[in-house]
Design goal:
about 290 residues, mainly alpha, 9 helices
């Protein structure tokens, strides 16, 4: 009974696992002084891991019959290159954008894949290392809205850069006030249409950026919650004799969701990469 009294409730368990390791306590919904140290650390480590894996593939590449690892990397590179050619028609731009798209896919896939680890494994190890049994740690960077909006904002900055580079500052500025509704020879109507067009362009840029980041965040956040609920099934079975069937449900549900989630983490990385290519391709096109 004492163990039951000290054990956290299901809601307390989930709330604890949704808290980030932060430099300072967050006091408002939007607080740019707060840094989620766990998301930053894990994403940097996984970024370096992705670089190492791709470097290893390039280092061991041979012109003969490729091994399974080299063949898998070559298929990935070819897939990304084909998508880049389909969306970016400027060969000079592709020299940077195609490797960028490959980096985006590999990095986001690795960050998403952290969701496949047991929910309590790394937080438990971190609590043991710090000696604090209430220490916070979240290990899926893409389940952090700051991470996904940061990535989508970086894509927005690249879109603005290529819009100016390809069309010129004057050409891009003209596009901002002349698309999508065009302009008019009448000065009054031209000013009104210019204001409306500019507002629509701003809304489009903001909507694309927010939806780009929110889509990835929403899917990974939901997946993280499902794994927590599945973990609670095992915990309920351990604390209740009446829950003798819960271990079976825990194993079955966990296995099914893990298999399905392999598709989810891959698909979300692919979708984010494709939207990156599409938005950068749109930046090269005139309205």
């Amino acid at each position: 009974m004492a163990a039951d009294a000290n054990a956290p409730t299901a809601s307390e368990y989930i709330v604890h696992h949704l808290q980030h390791l932060q430099n300072i306590k967050q006091k408002s919904i939007i607080d740019f002084s707060v840094v989620n140290l766990d998301s930053v650390t894990v994403s940097v480590i996984l970024g370096l891991l992705g670089i190492f894996v791709m470097w290893l593939a390039a280092r061991k590449a041979t012109s003969g019959v490729p091994g399974r690892f080299q063949a898998a990397v070559e298929m990935l590179v070819e897939m990304v290159d084909n998508q880049a050619k389909a969306n970016i028609h400027n060969a000079q731009s592709r020299k940077f954008i195609a490797p960028l798209a490959l980096t985006v896919f590999v990095w986001i896939f690795l960050m998403n894949a952290m969701d496949m680890l047991p929910v309590d494994l790394l937080p438990w190890l971190w609590q043991g290392a710090t000696g604090d049994h209430h220490a916070y740690l979240r290990v899926v960077p893409t389940a952090d809205l700051s991470t996904t909006l940061g990535l989508s904002t970086a894509v927005l900055i690249l879109c603005l850069y290529y819009s100016v580079k390809i069309k010129g500052l004057g050409g891009w500025a003209h596009e901002l006030v002349s698309a999508p509704f065009g302009t008019s020879k009448n000065p009054i109507f031209a000013v009104i249409l210019g204001i409306v067009n500019l507002l629509m362009q701003i809304i489009e840029y903001v909507a694309k950026t927010v939806s780009h980041g929110m889509r990835l965040f929403g899917n990974m956040y939901a997946g993280e919650l499902v794994f927590m609920l599945i973990a609670l099934m095992g915990g309920a079975a351990a604390m209740s004799l009446s829950g003798v069937l819960l271990p079976v449900g825990h194993i079955i549900a966990g296995t099914i969701w893990a298999i399905f989630h392999i598709l989810v983490i891959t698909l979300q990385a692919f979708i984010f990469m494709m939207l990156t290519l599409i938005y950068l391709g749109q930046a090269h096109e005139a309205h």
